[in-house]
Amino acid sequence: MKIRRPSLESRSSVCSFISRDKSTKPVFSVLWSIYPKLLVAIAVMSIGFVAFFLCRHWAYQTELFRVCQVLITGNDRVTEEEILQLSNVTAQDNLLSLDLESIAKSIEGHPWVHSVEVKKKLPDHLMITLKEHTPVAILNSDKMYLIDEQGEIIDRLSIEESVSLPIITGIDPKNIIDNNLTRSHNNRIQKALELISMASKGTRTLGVNNISQIDIAEKDTLILVTSYGSIPFYFDYENLGVQFSRAEKVLYQLYRSGTYKKAVKVELDYGPGKALVSLKH
Fold first, then answer.
1. What is the mean pLDDT of residues 130-158?
2. pLDDT tens readout for residues 195-253
3. Residue 42 in domain
4. Do residues 189 and 113 both lie within one domain?
5. Count of the separate structural domains present in the chain
6. Angle, alpha carbons 15-17-19 (nearest 5°)
7. Pairing between β-strand 137-140 and β-strand 144-147 as defined by DSSP bridges
8. Nearest Cα residue to 167 out of 246, 100, 223, 129
């Protein structure tokens, strides 16, 4: 009986299969080579976390970072005692544990504070920089209020305070709620503040020192009364810049001619490029 030998191709494929099988490592051998590296990585990470929390705990407990000094700058109206009280920071606090955002928000609750920047200066200094509101006018309604350039009420004006600012009138007390103006009346005050802003720029005939009062009248009219001569100038809400330039020219001529004492009123909205000056006879 003849034995059939496998062909050359089949023998070569079997051999190649055996050789490939011998070159493949067992699964448990591969895992055994990976596990030590993984365990080492986990151990290093664990040690790192523990070290971090231990250092953090030490930093929050050590006397090195106890608040030693609070440096306050930019305050004029607000006293340092008020700022410290609002910040609620004491010498027992740890500098690293302070919530700067919370401190700034608390200080900004003061009516005179516009914005606050709070920084840490290691190892033991806290720096607080204030920007206060700047009053530009007095709002005379049922009470006297100081207002800033945005038309927001800063605070009430006490009888003891002596300030030299233009007075804005014509706002009904009903439109002031919790020391805040209603939106529509805030927009009207903005028009008066535009005049004050223009008068504050440079040396002018109608400078801010020459504005005694601005009355917010009906029918979109502003009545500006000068400090020298008490001359009322009537503005409408449109093209205030053009009207203001015209008012300065008229006022210059009145002062130059000496007739400003006879001026009863000046209407700046009389017509395009015109103004009507009424004089006493």
1. 93
2. 999 999 877 789 999 999 999 988 789 999 999 889 999 999 988 999 999 999 999 99
3. no
4. no
5. 2
6. 70
7. antiparallel
8. 223
